[in-house]
Amino acid sequence: MLNRLPECDGEWIDRSQSVRFRFEGKTHEGFLGDVLSSALWANGVRLLGRSFKYHRPRGIYSLAGHDVNAMVEDGERTNLRGDLLPIDPELDVRAVNTAGSLERDWLRITDHFGRFMPVGFYYKAFHTPRLLFSFYEKQIRKIAGLGRVNPKGHSPHSAKDYAFCDFVTVGGGPAGLAGAIAAAEQGLKVLLIEEHPHLGGSFLWQHARDEAASRQLKDLLSRANMLENLTIRCGTQVAGWYADHWLALVDGERLTKLRATCTLVATGCFEQPAVFGNNDLPGVMLSSAARRLIYLYRVRPFERAVVLVGNREGYGVALDLLQAGVHVVAVVDLRATGEQSDLAESVASAGIEIFKHHTVYEAVASRDKKSVAGAILCPLNEHGGPESIGRVKLSCDGIVMSVGWTPASGIAYQAGVRFGYDERVEQLVPESEVDRVFVAGRAAGIFDLESQLQDGRRAGLAAAAACGRFEGEIPERPVHTGPPPSHPYPIIPHPDKKNFVDLDEDLHLADFKNAHQEGFDNIELIKRFTTVGMGPTQGKLSNFNAIRILSRLNGATINETGSTVSRPFHQPVSMAKLAGRRFHPMRRTPLHSQHLALSANMIHAGSWLRPEYYKIDESSRADCILSEAENVRSGVGVIDLSTLGKLHFYGPDAARFLEQIYTGTFSDQRVGRLRYALGCDEQGIIIEDGVVARLSEHHFYVTATSSGAAGFYRDLQRWALLFEMDVTLVNETGHLAAINLAGPKAREVLRSLSDLALDDAAFPYLGVRQGHVAGADALLMRIGFVGELGYEIHIPAGTASHVWQKILEAGRELEIRPFGIEAQRLLRLEKGHLIVGQDTDALTHPYEADLSWAIKVDKPFFVGSRSLQILAARPLTRQLVGLALPQPSKVPLPEECHLIIENGEIAGRITSVAHRTTLGQPIAMAFVTPEMARPGREVTIRVAGGKLLVATVVPMPFYDPENSRQKVAD
Amino acid sequence: MKIIHCPINGPRPLQEFHFGGQVREMPVGSQVSDAEWADYVFNRSGEPGIQSEWWYHTPSGTWFIAERDCQSDECIRTYLYGGRESDA
Asked: Which of A784, A881, B1, B62 fits a 20 to 30 Å CA distance from A766?
C-alpha cells in the first residue's frame, strides 16, 4: 500500500485489520473500513472502470457514492459502486461493461468513432432499414450497458420495518447534527440518518485541518450520544420522501418506512466538476474526492497535482494536498479577480505558483492513455473563454477540481421545497421552507461552519416549535458573506478533445451544442434528447452544468432555464429491498383444518384459501373433480361455502331498502321464503347476485358472492346513508360458516342431524328455516345451488368443524363426499348459472345475460334502473349462450377466453368451459352476437394453436331444464 | 403515504381508506333525458381545485366526506355525511 499516509484522528480505516480482496482476478490488500476504490488507489491502481458508451478509462471522481464508472460485479450482485463497496476477504469482483478485461477492453475502439456517434445517433441511424433494427439493438445493448444480471443469482430476503419520530434529520454533517441535537434537547423524538458509515459529514474532510472544528465535532458527537431520545442510523440512505413525512430508509439489511412529523434536509452539496478537455482521465477528480482520500482513507491521491479552482475552498484543498505530501505544481484560478485571503497567502508562501484567470484547458494522457500525465493551462479572455496564446504545459499525475457545488436537493424537492438561483452563492437555494420541512446548511447555500451549525440549530428549534415543545425565540437563518463558493461557468470548450459534462452517459459539450442546434432548447427536451442526468447518478454531477450550458446557449438566466424534477429514488434501491418478504394475507374458513385433513388441494380464490378438489391417491385432478361432481348428482356431496357474504338487514325499511339495491321485489316476499337477488351498479352493469331470505317482517338475511362481498357491503353502507331509511346492516360474513349439502340423498343425511321437519310441505324448495343441525343453531336454506335437492346450512363459525364432521359421519353409509370449487363450478355451469365476474365482465348488463326476468321495472327506483331503461330500449350487441362442444379429437377443446370467429372477425368469446361433465358432453358458456344466439346455430371457436373448432348453440340449463331435481318431493 | 383524518377514528394512513369518488347529486331518473343521465353516470370533472369526495375507512366501516384540493392533494376538512366534522 504504497500511497498510505500516517495515522490521523478521524480516519475510517482500521489499521489493525488488513484485508486481502480480489479485483479483476488480482489480489490486493487494504484495511477494514476501506471501500474498493480507496483500497485500489492506495495500491496505485487508477483504472477502476470503463465508461458507458466510449469505454474510456475512468478512476475515482467523487468518492462519495457517485462514481458510476467504477462499478463492479461479483457474479451474484451487479452494478456495485466502487466508492461505496466496503472491502472484505470474500470480495472478488470485476469491472462491469468491459469486453475481455478492464485493462484490455477491446470496446475502447468506440472512443475513436465518437465523432460519428453524436447524441440522437441511435434514433437516426438504426431505424432504417426497419428489419435490421433488432440486430442493431442487440449489438448496441452489448456495447453500451452496465453489469450483467445473473438470473440464477441468489436473492436474499430482506425485511421491512416501520419507524416513527417527531423529527427526522437527513444528513449527519454540521447542520444535521446541530439540528438533531437542538430538537432532541427540547424533548422531541429524533432520528438522525447518515448515509456514510460515520457521522460528521464535511467536518471530516472539509475542516479536517482545523483543530477547533475537530473539537466542535467531538463535542457534538458526545452530546448526541448522551441524548436518549436521539437515535442515530449511519449507513442508511433516504431513498425518497412521500406525502405527509413518509420516508423510505434503506440500509444494508432492510427497508424502513418512517413516519415523521417534521423533516430536516441537511444533505449538503454535490461538488460539481469543471468541463475541459479529457476531464475524465483517471487522476482528474473533485477536490472533495481528494480530501476524502486523504482524511477518511489516508491515501495520498497523487505525487504531483494541479489544482483548478473557482472558489476560496480550492486554496484550502491545495494546502491539504501539500500537507499530505503531494507536490502541488500550480493553483489555477478561473476567476479574473483571483483570491485575496489568508489562504491565498499561505498557498503563495508555500511556493505554489498561482495562475490567476487561467484554466486547465486539457488533461494530457499518459502514454497508455489510462491516467493523467500533465495539464495544459491556458489564460482566459474577458468572456471566460480560452485564449489561444500563452499556454503552459505542466507535468502532473493529478488534476483536482474545486469549482463549485450544487445542493443535494432531491429529498427537499420531493418534500415540496422549491429552489431558485442565488447569485451570492452561484447555486440553487431553497426559496422558502414549506410546512414542517426544513433545509439547512450547505444544501441551503450556507458554507461557513459556524453559520451551518446556527442554521441547523434554527431548524431543530423550529421543528420543536412546530411540535409544540418550544416557545422561545428561533434564531434567524444566517446569510452567506464573501465570494461565491461556486463559479458561474466552469466550462471551457476544447475543440479537439472530449469535454465531458455527464460521465454516466458519456455526454460531452459538443453533444449539447448539437442538441441545441437541432432545436432542443428547453431543459426537459435537452434532457430527453441527450439523456443527460438519466444515468445511474441521475445527474448529481452533471445536471447543473447542463443547465449552465443551456442557459448560455439560450442567453437566458438559470431561473429562466429552470431545472428538471427530482423524484424518488434519490439513490438506487435494490429490487430485493423493495420486494421484501412475500406478504399476502389470506383468509381461511373455519373448516380449513377439516379440508387439510381430507387431503384438499387448497388454492387462492380471491382473498380466500379454498379447496379446489380433494385428492384421492393415484387419481388425476380431472378424475377427482368429475367423480366429486358425479357423486353429487347420484348421491350426496358437501361443500364449504363459508366464504359467502352473509348480511342481515333489520328495520321497518329493510324490504324497501333491498328493493332499491337489487333489481327484484321483496316487500311481497313471504316470511320463511327465499328469492334470487341481482344487483347492478349505476351503469346497469351486473355486480352482484345472491339469495334473500325473509326471516321476519323486518328482518332479512342475504348472501353475497364470495369475491364481491366486501365491496358490496361497502356500497350498501353508503346507500344506507344516502337513502336515509330506517335500516340496520350487520355483516356476519366472518362470524358464520356455511355448508351446502347437495344431492338426491341430502335430505336423508340431514334428517338424522336436525330437529326440523324436512318433508316438502314443511320445508319446501326456496324455503328458509331456523333450527338445529348437530346441536348447533342453524339457518337452513333450501336452494338448488348445484341443481339438486340441497340445503345451505348457516351456523356459527365456532360450531362449523363439529357440524361438518357430523354431516360426514351421518352420510358415511350413503357415501357422502366433500366437493371443491372446481366440482361446484362444473355443476353450476351444467345448470347454466353464471358467475359474476367470470361469465360477466365490466360491461355486462342483465339483458345480455338472459336475466331480464330478474328485473322488476315497475318499481320507482333501484340502483341502475334508469340505465337499464335506456339499455332495454336498445338492440343487444351480444348475448350469453350455452354451447355444446364436440367430443375431444385432434382439435383441442377451447379454454376460457378463446375467441369465437365469424367471417374472419371476432364475434364473441368463451366465458366458462367444462371438458368433462356429468352429462358426458363438453359444454361452454360464451358471449356471441345476437344473430348467432339461437339454438342449433353453429359457431366457430379459435382454439389453442389457432385451430378452428365448430360448436353448437344450445338452450341452457344443459342439465335438468325443468329444475325438477331441486324441487323434488319426498 | 398520505394521512387522512377520519371523523370517527382521527388521523390514519391512506392504506386504511377506500376512495369512493366525487360527491355528486343523483338526478331523479324520470326527470332527466337519456343524455343527462349518461352524463351523470359516465362523466367526472377533472377540474383542479377543491372537490368533495367520498372516503371509506375500511377497518371501521365509516363513510365520510373529504374536501380535498385535487391539485395540491391536500385535505381541507373531513366530516360525516350530514354530520360531524373531524377535529383536524
From this structure: A881
Closest residue in A to B13 (Cα) is A244
Q: Which of B1, B18, B26 sits opposite A242 (nearest CB)?
A: B1
Maximal C-alpha separation, chain A: 117
d(Cα A459, Cα A464) in Å, to the nearest integer? 9
Look at the domain A496-565 and name its fold.
Arc Repressor Mutant, subunit A (1.10.10)
| Chain A residue with the nearest C-alpha to that of B60 | A714
| Residue A447 C-alpha from the chain's centroid | 36
Which of B1, B26, B38 minimises the CB distance to A244? B1
**What pLDDT digit, counting tens, does each position of A76-131 carry?**
888 999 999 999 999 999 999 888 888 888 888 777 776 666 676 666 666 666 77
Chain B residue with the nearest C-alpha to that of A683:
B41
Cell numbers at A29, concatenated: 490488500
How far, in Å, are A69, A117, A272, A506 from residue A110 at the CA level?
A: 16, 9, 27, 12
What does each C-alpha distance from A365 to A44, A55, A275, A373 come to in angstroms?
A: 17, 15, 16, 5
**Which of the four pLDDT bands, split at 50, 70 and 90, describes residue A1?**
low
- Residues of chain B contacting A682 with CB distance shorter than 8 Å: 26, 41
pTM summary value = 0.86
Give chain A positions within 8 Å (CB) of B18.
714
Superfamily of domain A273-403: FAD/NAD(P)-binding domain (3.50.50.60)
Q: Grid coordinates in use for A527?
A: 434532457
A717 vs B: CB within 8 A: yes
Q: If you average pLDDT over residues A643-660, what whole number do you get?
A: 97
Distance from CA of B28 to the nearest CA of A (A): 9
Chain B nearest-CA residue for A245: B1
Q: Which residues of A touch B14 (CB under 8 A)?
A: 243
Note the Cα A945 to chain centre separation in Å. Answer: 36
Q: Does domain A1-113 have CATH number 3.60.20.40?
A: no
**Res. B88: pLDDT tops 50:** no
- CA distance to partner chain B, nearest, from residue A411 (Å): 15
pLDDT score at A148 = 85
Q: DSSP E strands: which ranges in A82-125?
A: 92-95
User: Degrees (nearest 5) of the Cα angle A567, A568, A569?
Assistant: 130
